[in-house]
Amino acid sequence: MNLINSIDPFLMQLVIVPILVIGLGVLAAILTKRVFVGPIVTLLLYLLYEIWSSLYYYPESGISLTIFNIIYPFITFIISGVADKHGEKD
Predict the structure, then answer these.
(1) Which residues of the chain form beta strands (DSSP E)?
(2) I need a labelling partner for 83 at 20 to 30 A (CA). Which of 16, 27, 29, 73 fits?
């Protein structure tokens, strides 16, 4: 847990975690060849992160969810759709 404590929570939430959850969502969509799988995977992963971070960093205030639960799956859907259309041309 020392590694997690050494990373700024804002950097974690705005850079590291989005790259991971969007990347894994797009990877899931590409591997399953279904565009809708990517946003679902992204949503579930980011929800897990937000629940964990709310309880870890701010245990007294409870769980709080942000608008990123809508934005990141939408970005994943767009990237997955582009990757799917690009894959059909080959």
Answers:
(1) none
(2) 16
Does residue 52 lie within any of the structural domains?
Answer: yes
Q: Which run of H or of E encompasses 10?
A: helix 9-11
Give the single-character DSSP code of 64: -
Q: At what angle do helices 37-57 and 17-32 cross, to 10 degrees?
A: 150
Beta-carbon contacts of 60 under 8 Å, excluding residues fewer than 6 positions away, are none
Taking only the tens place, the pLDDT of each residue in 52-79 is 988 888 889 888 889 999 999 999 999 9
Domain coverage including residue 79: 26-89
Domain count, the chain: 1
Tokens matching residue 41: 């995977």
